[in-house]
User: What shape does this take?
Amino acid sequence: METPKIVVTSEDWESKLSDVEILIEDMNRLVMNLLVAEGYREAAEKFKEESITMRILSDDDSCLNL
Assistant: This one.
């Protein structure tokens, strides 16, 4: 027996999204993780240099070990 799919309207999605607080540090970590995971080493290094929050983060963070 299949589980019924839940349909979320764009209005519901936008409403739920507006209730979520995303810190810039978290967003930068996500971007860095994506760049590293996809093999964009040069872009990750440039992002680290240009991002204030990435320079503040600890070097022992695995996403920063380029």
User: Anything to note?
Assistant: The two ends are 46 Å apart (CA to CA).
